[in-house]
Each structure stands twice: as structure tokens, then as C-alpha cells.
Design goal:
The structure is a single chain. The protein is of the alpha/beta class and about 350 residues long. The chain has a single domain, classed as TIM Barrel. Helices cover about 50% and strands about 15% of the residues. It contains 17 helices and eight strands. It has an eight-stranded parallel β-sheet. Strand 5, helix 10 and strand 6 form a beta-alpha-beta unit. It binds adenine and zinc ion. Zinc ion binds next to strand 1.
Length: about 350
């Protein structure tokens, strides 16, 4: 039995960074730091509409999801070669390892690259090689989830899935991201059905900027196994009850929600309410290079602004991250035992 009440706040803050955890919502293109963007731009001869690293960073003042996506896609334009994708992911894994991440499921957006003429092989093979290297260099177990861009058509999503099938062994599932409002899950019903028939795991962004109805259609129409973000579920008590009863995981991204003005300040974040309602909520970094921090920073910022969250909630969030992962039961049990040990030693 872990005596959570005996863990001092200072020890808790250290555990938030050091304890073993899984990251289930990270867009690998969102881990591209300005320094690496400029480095790759120079090497690849790509012109950027920003004069310097500082000027680019200064542009990271977002008012909503779209204002972020415009800069995020511009940043990703420097990625051309397999080695670029590998370098980007290795930089993320080094940061993740320092934050106690032992398992990571990485989103990637192939259309952002293939639409610029980058071969699917360069994207997937660069990232897959990084996942293999993450194990040997950092002891991180990593896998890939291919995301469809929802502002594009379902036909384009079908083409993307088709183009990725020669690399089927390198990704475990499909997701849905980009501009949410006006692009409901229903738009991708058939391509998700095809992915399901192929045995792929299914996730979708829903209820970040979009209404609770998008969460419901992600569940009912797309048949997803996790909801990415999902924080707007709090607007529908019946939906909160349903998510809790189904133990449907939500991959919540607190710093992202503040930076994209989904919530006014971190102190207003509804994460404590989601946990009290019994939801399987997890903490994640979304696009850490753009939102002011990686996974450890997300935990620390959240627990600092919301003092009602204590050691018990930290343990629950980290345990949820393992439970909600697409890992085999034995791996989940082993990580949860490590997590218990870290807290018991506290
Ligand atoms: N792509 C990268 N980050 C995203 C987010 N927070 N929401 C939707 N699409 C994204
Ligand atoms: Zn996201």
C-alpha cells in the first residue's frame, strides 16, 4: 500500500519528472525546436519566413488551434530526408527519457510531407529507425500512429493509408488531427472502417475546440479506442458519465490547452474534475516545442497551478498512461510495478 498522504510536496514535484510514465499524445513534428528547424533549413536549402531562431520563437503567440497549425506546418517544411525525420525523433526521445518516459506512441502527419513531394518511405523509415534507436539508446519502448489531416478530404486520407501500407509493420494505428471545427469525425467514417479492418488501432482528436458531439461521433462512428484531448466533454455531464463508465481514455494536454486558449489559464483547467469523475485521463505534451514544455513540464505546470492535485492523482495519471497504451498486458503490469515502486520509495 502506498501512503500517498505522506509524500511531501517537494518529493511529489521531483516524482512528477522522474517517475516512469507513458506519453500517448505527441505530434513528432511538434517536437521540432526552432534551433533544429533553422539547422535543417540551412542544410536542405529551405527558405523560412523568419529571420532567426528568436524571431520564430517570438511568433509562438497563438490565439487558437488554426493560428498554431499555420506555423506548425511552416516549421515542418524543413523536413526532407529520412535522416531529418530520424534526427527530429531522436531529439524528442532524449527529452522524453529525461522525463521518465518509458513508453511513447508518436503521432506523425505523413500528408504534411508527402504533399511536398517527400516520399512516404523517407517519413516512415526515418521515424521507425528512431523508434528502434530509442530502445537501445534510452530504453524507451516506442511506436508510431499515422494521423490523417482532417482539413483534407477523406479521399486523400484513403490515398495516404494506401501509400503507407507497404510500411504497415512500422505503425500500430491511425489518428485524426489538424483543424477540428467544421471537420467532424463522420467525414472519415469509411477510412477508419478500412483501418479497423486492417487491424490498426484507432484514435482521434475530438473535443479540443470541437463540441462534445464530436467526441460522441468519434466513439460511435469511428469506433476509436482513445480520445485525444476530449476536454470539452465537461460540457455534457451525460458524456462524462459515459466516458467514465467505458473507461475511455482521454489524452489531455494541459500546456497545449492554455497556449491554444482552450482554457484561459492553467488554474482553470478541468483535469481535477475529470479525475474526480473517474475518467481515465492522462497527461501529454501534444507539441512540446511550441507549447512551452515536454511531459515533465506539463506535469509540473499542472500540479503547480492546481494544488488540489496531489501524489494520489499523479500516480493515477501515470498509471492511466500505461493502462491506456496499446501495449501488451505484461508490459503494462511491469511498468505499473515500477511506478508503484517509485511512489513507495517516496
Ligand atoms: N496537430 C498538431 N497538434 C495538434 C492539435 N493540438 N490539435 C489538432 N491537430 C494538431
Ligand atoms: Zn494533438
Amino acid at each position: 500500500m502506498i501512503d500517498f498522504d505522506r509524500i511531501p510536496r517537494e518529493r511529489l514535484m521531483a516524482l512528477l519528472r522522474s517517475a516512469p510514465k507513458a506519453e500517448l499524445h505527441i505530434h513528432i513534428e511538434g517536437s521540432l525546436e526552432p534551433e533544429l528547424i533553422f539547422d535543417l533549413a540551412r542544410r536542405n536549402g529551405v527558405a523560412l519566413p523568419y529571420a532567426s531562431v528568436e524571431a520564430l520563437r517570438a511568433a509562438y503567440a497563438f490565439t487558437d488551434l488554426q493560428s498554431f497549425l499555420d506555423i506548425y506546418y511552416a516549421g515542418a517544411s524543413v523536413l526532407l530526408k529520412e535522416d531529418d525525420f530520424h534526427a527530429m525523433a531522436m531529439a524528442y526521445f532524449a527529452r522524453a527519457a529525461a522525463d521518465g518516459v518509458v513508453h511513447a506512441e508518436l503521432f506523425f502527419d505523413p500528408q504534411t510531407h508527402t504533399d511536398r513531394g517527400v516520399p512516404m518511405a523517407a517519413v516512415v523509415q526515418g521515424l521507425a529507425r528512431a523508434c528502434a534507436d530509442a530502445r537501445t539508446q534510452h530504453g524507451i519502448d516506442a511506436s508510431l500512429i499515422l494521423c490523417f489531416l482532417r482539413h483534407l478530404t477523406e479521399a486523400a486520407a484513403f490515398d495516404t493509408l494506401e501509400a503507407a501500407l507497404p510500411f504497415r509493420q512500422h505503425f500500430i494505428g491511425v489518428g485524426l488531427d489538424s483543424s477540428e471545427r467544421g471537420h467532424p469525425p463522420e467525414k472519415f467514417a469509411r477510412v477508419f472502417a478500412k483501418a479497423r479492418a486492417l487491424g490498426l488501432h484507432l484514435v482521434a482528436h475530438a473535443g479540443e475546440e470541437g463540441p462534445p458531439a464530436y467526441i460522441e461521433s468519434a466513439l460511435d462512428v469511428l469506433k476509436v479506442e482513445r480520445i485525444d484531448h476530449g476536454v470539452r466533454c465537461v460540457e455534457s455531464p451525460a458524456l462524462v458519465q459515459r466516458l467514465a463508465a467505458q473507461r475511455m481514455p482521454l489524452t489531455v494536454c494541459p500546456l497545449s490547452n492554455v497556449k491554444l486558449c482552450v482554457v484561459p489559464t492553467m488554474a482553470d483547467h478541468r483535469l481535477p474534475e475529470l479525475l474526480s469523475a473517474g475518467l481515465c485521463a492522462t497527461v501529454n505534451s501534444d507539441d512540446p516545442a511550441y507549447f512551452g514544455g515536454y511531459l515533465g513540464d506539463n506535469f509540473v505546470a499542472t500540479f503547480t497551478a492546481l494544488p488540489q492535485l496531489g501524489a494520489r492523482e499523479a500516480h493515477t495519471l501515470m498509471r492511466n498512461s500505461f493502462e491506456a497504451s496499446f501495449s501488451p498486458p505484461e508490459a503494462k503490469a511491469a511498468w505499473i510495478a515500477q511506478l508503484d515502486q517509485a511512489f513507495a520509495a517516496g
